[in-house]
Amino acid sequence: MQTLSRKTARMWSRLGQRGTICGVALPEMLEERSDCYILTADLGTTSGLSRVMQQQPERFVNVGIAEQNLIGVAAGLAFEGNVVFATTFATFLTMRGYEQIRHNLGYQKANVKLIGSAAGFAMGMFGNSHYSYEDIAIMRSIPNMMVISPADAGEAYLAAYMALEHDGPVYIRLSGGLNAPVVYTEPYAFAPGRAVWLREGKDVALIATGGMTADALEAAKRLEADGIQAAVLHMHTIKPLDTDALYACSGYGLVVTIEEHSVIGGLGSAAAEYFMEQERKPRQIRIGIQDTFVRPGGHAYVRQENGLDAAGISQRVKAAVSEGV
Amino acid sequence: MQEITRKNARIWSMLGMRRTVGILLKEFAKEDRAFVFATADMARYMGAEDFSETFPDQFVDVGIAEQNLIGVAAGMQKEGFHVFAGTYATFLTARALDQIRVSLGYMKLGVKLIGISGGLSDGNFSPTHMALEDIADMRAIPNLTVISPADGAELVKAMYALRAHPGPAYLRLTGRANTPVVYTQEYDFAIGRAVCLREGRDVALIAAGTMAAAALNVAEELCKSGISCKVMNMHTIKPLDEAALDAIEEFGLAVTMEEHMRAGGLGSAVAEYMAQKEKRPVQLMLAVEDVYPQSAEYEQLLESCGLTVSQMTERILKKCRELGLLPETTANCRIKGERK
Amino acid sequence: MKTGKELEDMAYEMRKDVLRMAYHSGKKGAHLGGSLSAIELLAVLYGEIMHYNPKEPLWEGRDRFIMSKAHGAMALYAALKQAGFLSEADIAGALDGTSPYYEHPQRNEEKGIEISGGSLGQGLSLSVGMGLAMQKKRNGQSKIYVMLGDGECNEGAVWEAAASAIHFGLKQIVILVDVNGLQYGGPTEKILRAGSLKDRWSGMGFSVLETDGHNVRKIREALLLQTDAPKVILAHTVKGKGVSFAENRVEWHSAFLTEALYGQAMEELGACRK
User: Whose CB has fewer CB within 10 Å in chain C, the N or C terminal residue?
Assistant: First the structure.
């Protein structure tokens, strides 16, 4: 396992989250652990698994375009005492094999780690069938699942190693593509279920997950120029939720959850479920996809169209803050 | 056309929701030559065992193949048929989730899904047959309407409403045979409009499915402690009746009650909407607490999940105590003109 | 090697246990039909073919049995009693609402239950994963016996799994299809006729054998036969076998055994043995 440094952060950001997990972390794990397997549904090279396929063909399994079977085979391997990583596009991984995930990972707690790549709109021109914005909602509803959405490639690397050590099913939701923004450049404590405060600010708390965290930080900078002090909390683990960190938000008048996911069932809902049960709580705005299939386009374009970039976020927050005053 | 009368309500209750569906399916088939009932080997379980003989041209059984069920249903709908597709809620929604997303959500083909044994009612078959994530899953997909009727009468109402509704929908059936009766006479039912079953001023109970009947009983119990409860039957979980929720802004406590996982269900939908408000009550979410319960009979399961009337009453009382909502006097919990 | 008579005796005991479990499960009813059709298959597997050790249930070299058609749970419990995994008390309490032995089995390797079931079409995929694990672990000893229903073969997921079993060359997998001809809604031929089951499996590359699923000698023969490709045994059976009122009756997929019917069924079983 490597440590996070300026150099690795720069290198990995070029590979993106998927490239870092599939091309760096997984090959290392296969070297380190003889009980580790990598599975995919016809997305070997596409997922950046070439190194795995060349170096460890013995413990690489491609089941073909058959996601339900992918989950079943992964669980079967896990039941024989192995730790199994299964990866393909987030939407097919979580939706096509959903009942298999429920049955084998949720109900029977198979030690399988799901790596869902290109979540949100990262598939760009492939369109809505390849977009994934229900995956957090559906994975979160299954008992025993851990749901993680890293902010950048470095965190994706740490999350994959955490998943390797964690005894139980994990879903890691990967955002973005190549040349992803860097959020962390030095070693920090990554622990599942423990959110990270990336910025302080007294006026509003931005709670973001996945690739949106970098945009939240950028939005916070823009808001500062408008005289609004925004704190940024990075909620990399959506389940189990860091309720201590949310509790720390209860003093704010306004919190804003930000995710490249539907406003139904995702981070925003998880936070709302927590806040609504508390006596003292902030008002909450959910930024995300407004329960609709979107007009497809390049990743940056779709995010911009749906208010999911720094400009969109800062505008929305500014409006909400002035409304509240 | 079925009418809500005391007698019919009794019959539907005896049959339970899943067999009441069969009556409507046959009526729809008779009235509309383009109506099709599609199933994955579950016709008999839905009170439609003779459907295939009476309406052979309007019946499709794809066998135990839920993914294909959705594909076939959507294909027929696309060609102008009016398809209701039914099987076990958990297999229908979970096994075929991607197919539902693409054909119903994305393409907006107006197939009506009927999920039988929603919640815990068939839990004696083990957690594989409990549908506890279905609301979360269906709600996450754009363009789907999600309805969970309170009793047999409301199921009938919902079936008529859905027949006239152009878009895709998921109808979640709860309870077993001898479902508690909520409605014994005609009332106004509209998709997306909650029904106030009891007026009150301290605590709002928001329920869907057979939990609505339980909520009425809880309200009656809480009344003994002087707590005045409003009971809302939120039969449509999506789209949510936001106006009805606006009306409870001033309440001290809102309680959501459901046979569903805590994450993503009715409670979550209410929380999403209320969290953005300046003024809103504290919410208590009564749901299955993110575990697969051990297989047991329905009543035992409700108890192990803390969802019996007495358990829910206790949990609400405790919350009221914490929030200082307990009235000094136990008199006067009823609101004038309320339904009894 | 056990004699045919010994295996038949074992099947007889298992049938009685299944009836007892069904009777004790009470008014909600139990999956009698699909349990009774699978009895001889399980008797031969557990009575003679499979290698296992209830004192060391997690023994790596054991053969695995995967009950994919999990509504046959009672037959599995009865077999696990014969095999020494379950006790008489386990059987006496099974399906009573509080026992861990449910209508559909829940994974409990200590007790010989390899996987949880209840959602059809998943067992073969799991078997492929387990088979791959064995292949990689150089465990050339263990076999995986997976039991499917013919109705279950409606599920698309079965065929994804079947393709991968062939593709990965998993000869340790032996598929037994309990072809009782009925599923919940009626005859499988009527619900979803999809050509010959034999041709479907053999077309994918399996070695397919057909046998009488109630004849212990023939079942043994089929199980012992060496084949070039992974083996599928299409075992022709009778749903509800051994109980006249349940045989080939779709309503006995899952039904309530009254005291009178229970008495009659037990009597019929006894009479057959004389």
Answer: C
Residue contact C184–B295, C-beta within 8 A? no
Phi, psi torsion values for B288, nearest 5 degrees: -75, 130
Is the minimum CB–CB distance between C119 and chain A shorter than 8 Å?
yes
Q: Which residues pair with C65 in a beta bridge?
A: C145
Assigned CATH for A196-323: 3.40.50.920
Q: Which residues of chain C have pLDDT under 50?
A: none
Please state, in angstroms and as integers, the Cα–Cα distance from residue B29 to each residue in B62, B70, B81, B116, B160, following that order: 18, 19, 11, 20, 13
Mean pLDDT of B22-26: 96
Cα first-last separation, chain B? 28
Q: Which residues contact B224 (CB under 8 A, 6 or more apart)?
A: B330
Q: With a CB-CB cutoff of 8 Å, which residues 148-207 of chain C face chain A?
A: 156-157, 160-161, 163-164, 167-168
pLDDT above 70 for B338:
no
List, for residues B61-76, the tens digit of each pLDDT value: 989 999 999 988 998 9
Pairwise CB contact (< 8 Å): C191 & B129: no
Helix (H) or strand (E) holding A85: strand A83-89
The structural architecture, per CATH, of the domain A6-175 is 3-Layer(aba) Sandwich (3.40)
Q: What is the ipTM of this complex?
A: 0.94
The per-type count for chain A, helices as H runs and strands as E runs, is 13, 12
Could you state, in order of their start, the residue ranges of all structural domains in chain A? 6-175, 196-323
Taking residues B251-280, report their average pLDDT.
97
For chain C, first and last CA: distance in Å?
A: 24
**Tokens standing for A121?**
């709109």
pLDDT in tens, A59-95: 999 988 889 999 999 999 999 999 999 999 999 999 9
Instruction: Kindly state the DSSP code that residue B131 receives in the 8-state scheme.
Output: B
What are residue C6's phi and psi, to 5 degrees? -65, -40
Interchain proximity B65–C192, CB inside 8 Å: yes
Q: Cβ separation of C126 and A104 shorter than 8 Å?
A: yes
Q: Residue B332 — pLDDT band, cuts 50, 70, 90?
A: low
Report whether CATH 3.90.226.10 matches the domain B6-174.
no
Domain layout of chain B by residue ranges? 6-174, 195-323
The torsion angles phi and psi of B85, rounded to 5 degrees, stand at -120, 125
Give the separation between CA C127 and CA C64, rounded to whole angstroms: 9
Q: Residue C154 carries which DSSP code? A: G
Ranges of residues in chain A with a pLDDT under 50 are 325
In chain C, count of helices (H) and strands (E)?
A: 11, 7
The answer to whether A13 faces chain B, any CB pair under 8 Å, is: no
- Determine whether the interchain pair B272/A262 forms a contact, defined as Cβ–Cβ distance below 8 Å: no
Tell whether domain B195-323 is in CATH 3.40.50.920. yes
- What lies within 8 Å, CB to CB, of A160 at 6+ separation is A21, A25, A26, A29, A85, A113, A115, A172
**B125, B299, B303, best to mutate vs chain C, most C CBs in 10 Å:** B125
The number of angstroms, rounded, from the C-alpha of C60 to the middle of its chain's C-alpha atoms is 22
Mean pLDDT across chain C, nearest whole number? 93
Task: Order across the sheet with A237-239: list the strands.
Answer: A60-62, A36-40, A83-89, A112-117, A170-173, A146-148, A237-239
Backbone angles phi and psi of A170, in degrees to 5: -140, 140
Domain containing C221: what range? Answer: 4-272
pLDDT one-digit tens code per residue, A288-315: 999 999 988 889 999 999 999 999 999 9
> Residue B336's pLDDT band (boundaries 50, 70, 90)?
low
Q: What is the pLDDT of residue B340?
A: 41
Q: pLDDT value at position C92?
A: 94
Overall number of domains in chain C: 1
Q: Which residue out of C65, C135, C160 would a mutagenesis test of the A interface target, given it has the greatest number of A Cβ atoms within 10 Å?
A: C160
The residue assigned the tokens 């027929």 is: B76
